[in-house]
Amino acid sequence: MDYRVNNLLYAAGPELLNTIRMDIVLKEPVDLQTVQKAVDTVAARFPYYAVKLARRGEEYVFLPNPLPFVVSPEGRTVVLGSEQSNYHLFAFACDGCHLYMDSTHFITDGQGSFPFFKAILYYYLSAVHPEDLFDTRGIALAGSAVPFEESDDYPYPDEPLAEEPIGSITRPDEIFMLPGQPQGYEDMESWSSFRFRVKQKDMMSYVSSVDGSPATFIASLVYKAIVDIHPENQLPLVCGMQHQFRNALGRPLSHLCHVNIVPLVYPDSLRSKSIEQLNTIARGTLIIRADDANDVLTVNRHVRNEKLIRGMDLAQKHEHMLREIMDGIGRNTFEVSYTGRVPWSGLDRYIADVVPYLDMSLSGGISVEIFSVGEFFSVNIMQRSRDPEITDRFAALLSCNGIPYTAEEPVHFDLCGFELPR
Questions:
Q1: CA 104/CA 20 separation, integer angstroms
Q2: 295, 300, 306, 312 alpha-carbon torsion, rounded to 10°
Q3: What is the number of alpha carbons within 13 Å of residue 157 lying toward its C-beta?
Q4: DSSP state at residue 361
Q5: Poorest-confidence range of 178-187, 365-374, 390-399?
Q6: How far apart are CA 4 and CA 418, in angstroms?
Q7: Which of 163, 238, 251, 325 has the fewest CB atoms in 10 Å of its CB?
Q8: CB of 356 within 8 A of CB of 325?
Q9: For residue 116, is it left (φ>0), alpha (ψ between -120 and 50) or beta?
Q10: Exposure string over 401-415, b if 16+ CB within 10 A, otherwise e
Q11: What is the pLDDT of residues 329-359, one digit of tens each?
């Protein structure tokens, strides 16, 4: 069976790879051969991921790819869609206690790929720990049926849905962009990760007292850090809050990418507000802007783009979809994404940390991923530069608000490339 591509993929090119690396840090060293066997075991259960991208005239399609997924030693990255990855758009790697999954947001997102990675982790841990028992009811086992609602390659309606948006969801025409953050891919060697670990009970005790959430609390801290460092700026700041719109689409099992970027706008008038006030304001704004009624706008935008690009050649499709993505995602001062508790089926007792790494070319300069692991929140602040000024201020604000934390040494991170067929 051939699979239709998500129209977002037509934005792909040298100026936008949109790749992501998920780093699962286990509590023991990872064995590459056992990972390869687990990946091979699982591949047939996820046929919509076991594909290669092909060109048909002025369109792209996904064709079945019988070649094995690549598992690289030493954490090495490969070019997705190329011979290096056996033409797959997923790849895996190991290094010490690290198990990596590489993919591109053009094929899926974190929620869509989680069942795939979870199944691989189950078969891996079952092999290295045969004495252990896991709850397999929440795991996509090899040989099990693939629901259509999961594998459907076009889960969108044929016509736009009725729209009844709530409040304003627009960005200001001019916003503050961080200086000293190289654009695009021109200085990838400087992409840096600053990681913090915070006990969940410490953060949740605080945010619940101010009617907030982990996402809005971290966003408020980053905002405060930026305005403290740039007191001369009077332009509004925008936090792009990552948000799923599967509920509005009515397809909770869809494997495709369904990430919307909800803008939280911080005008200069908020500069003097306390962290508590900023957190409450951000939470209220997010509740309104991330409502299903507003998510319908994103669904309809996808439907309208599907109609608009029909009949265009590849160059026109690329130009149109790249403009759409940059207009809807690429105009933020910083971004924040929060992943709450996920159903690991007991596999998490072998996990020390989960660290997502993102393509920073779409970032305003700062991207924050918050992941819940055991009793901790893992907060990964990614930058397009090595400058620790903002993260140092972020750490100081945690301390000022009575939130204990541990900080890892900053590290450089690499991401896979992505090659289109010709």
A1: 6
A2: -110
A3: 14
A4: G
A5: 178-187
A6: 18
A7: 163
A8: no
A9: alpha
A10: bebebeeeeeeebbb
A11: 668 999 999 988 889 999 999 999 999 999 9
